[in-house]
Write a structure and sequence with these properties.
There is one protein chain. The termini are far apart. The longest helix is centred in the middle third of the chain and has 14 residues. Helix content is about 40%, strand content about 0%. It is elongated, with a radius of gyration of 22 Å.
Length: about 110
Amino acid sequence: MTPQQHPHPPRQQQSRQQGGDPRHRVAAEIDRRTEELVALAGTLVGFDTTVRATADEPARDEADLQQCLAERLTAAGADAEVFTPEPGELPATPQTPPGLGFTGRP
């Protein structure tokens, strides 16, 4: 059988021998945890992190969102650090109008 005729590339074939196609395992885990994932997505999109039009507008919910994510990551065993960058440390982008500070948003 030539490589073109082989139904599965060697890497896929090996993963099947070690417990199935990883895509199927991921899809099964998503199916198993659908309610939890929908609830998490709802929580995350509930934070107002819209771009400020001007630098003098108050911070939105960035700090609360970052704290929420840090707590989830820490609970899962990851190291999470929330910090406030110094002005000028981040490149200018449409999300950071000139003069934007980080008060209220780490």
